[in-house]
Predict the structure.
Amino acid sequence: VATATAAPALGNEQIWDEANTAYVNANYPRAIELYHSIEDQGLASAKLYYNMGNAYYKSNELGRAILYYNRALRLRPNDEDIRHNLEYAKQSTKDSIEEIPEFFLKTWIKSLRGALSCTTWSILSLVMLAMALAFGLIYMLAQRLSLRKTGFYLMAIAALLFIITTAFAWSERNMLIKRSEAIVMDSAVSIKSSPDRSATELFVLHEGTKVTIGEAIDGWAEVRIADGRKGWIESNRIEKI
């Protein structure tokens, strides 16, 4: 697992430096405490979450390490260091879940959408809108037929790209707001057939496994894992990404 990164523009640099020093000196509990103090001030960032993931991994808290790597990846989806450390940590999980194969086009679209952050897609959508308007003016005001044709086709392309980038930005933002994914925090937890401790046990999940959250009822959450199996888990056994 890679070491802590350089200080981000978080403010409160003294605490950040102290936390990184504690990490380098293998005082991981102290590093985690200081990183959390930064997070509690509303100064979260991909770098902060990445370093927290590293500190938790070094502390053998696999579930929290995977949780914070996932949080970092949400903010910076194309960061190879975060992705590498997440995959490395996942190799230590006990559950080996075979994912349901996805239609290749859907996989490609998800990969493309995840290549950039919500903010970046939003900026691109505004750029495409501006370009569509500019080319629209060329189409309406140009005297030469060739320029009008060029303006029309470029306007159409820019408008299409505006729709696509806006859809991607909305999708990424929706994913961040809904927080429909979570990580199992307990070493082992039973997944029940209904939201009741006396219900039938369907299967067992272990620390670090990712689940998708559905309905929530009285301290229970319906979850689905990558192979399509569903069941109910006590909400305090998982933590949302």
In short: The longest helix spans residues 145-178. The radius of gyration is 23 Å.
